[in-house]
Design brief:
By secondary structure, the chain is an all-alpha fold. The protein has two domains: 55 residues; 32 residues, no CATH class. Helices cover 69% and strands 0% of the residues. The longest helix has 16 residues. The termini are far apart.
Length: 98
């Protein structure tokens, strides 16, 4: 029990140099701790306050989402004053993306 707490404290101490606010970032840090330190998944999840479900989650990416993301990036790079909402409406109404 004491060893687990000490190990958790060491892992978190190393991560404190980096800003760990979002759950996805904390999950990345937990995965890194498991891979590099050989820590148990449960212990790493407890240390970074991430659920094991979040740790195991694999995002589902579709080709259509990449196309839309590329369009949004190009549109906002060309005209900095365009808001996301305008770009979204353009892609939905003019280009026909759902």
């Amino acid at each position: 029990m004491i060893v687990d707490e000490r190990l958790k404290a060491e892992i978190v101490q190393e991560a404190l140099a980096k800003k760990v606010v979002r759950a996805s970032r904390r999950c990345e840090m937990a995965k890194r701790a498991v891979q590099e330190k050989g820590v148990a998944i449960k212990l790493a999840c407890e240390a970074f306050e991430v659920s094991e479900t979040c740790y195991q989650y694999q995002p589902k990416r579709r080709a259509e989402n990449e196309v839309i993301a590329n369009w949004l990036i190009r549109m906002t790079e060309n005209r900095r004053n365009r808001r996301f909402g305008l770009c979204y409406q353009y892609l939905r109404n003019v280009r026909g993306y759902p």
